[in-house]
């Protein structure tokens, strides 16, 4: 009877782990690209165990950026943000994994680098908020919206890394 209960709990736990796997949108901003930090950022997400499912190197239009940052359109810094983000190439990516949205945001650190802990991307690699090198989705809903804005469905690659069994228990 105890074994059945343990197996039932394990089954529920495994199911919830599988359901918590999600996708997030991460973008290296023009300052991160210009500083040659794309590889370091990718390395951190790979080392954590997340799976890269899409990546591109692109120079975004102001129209695309206005859609991406539409929730900030009423803020006084919006025009400068769009101008800055369209000033050079960016590297948008989609990462997949267990709780990747929340964990990804934690890995990025606070929006303002001075408030970011050492060990986070912004805490280690940035000084000012206007040059915080990276964007990450703040919710699953935002991630889905951003992924659909930047990538066509055919650009999202479904694959299973050989290391997956060494990262996840289920």
Automatic annotation (TrEMBL):
Pfam families: NDK. It catalyses: a 2'-deoxyribonucleoside 5'-diphosphate + ATP = a 2'-deoxyribonucleoside 5'-triphosphate + ADP. The keyword Signal applies. It is an enzyme of class 2 (transferase). GO terms for molecular function: ATP binding; nucleoside diphosphate kinase activity. Residues 21-158 form the Nucleoside diphosphate kinase-like domain. InterPro entries: NDK-like_dom, NDK-like_dom_sf, Nucleoside_diP_kinase, Nucleoside_diP_kinase_AS. ATP binds at residues 29, 77, 105, 111, 122, 132. Residues 1-18 form the signal peptide. Its EC number is 2.7.4.6. Its cofactor is Mg(2+). Keywords: ATP-binding, Kinase, Nucleotide-binding, Signal, Transferase. GO terms for biological process: CTP biosynthetic process; GTP biosynthetic process; UTP biosynthetic process. The active site is at residue 135. SMART domains: NDK. HAMAP family: NDP_kinase. Belongs to the NDK family. This is Nucleoside diphosphate kinase. It comes from Zootermopsis nevadensis (Dampwood termite). The lineage of its organism: Eukaryota, Metazoa, Ecdysozoa, Arthropoda, Hexapoda.
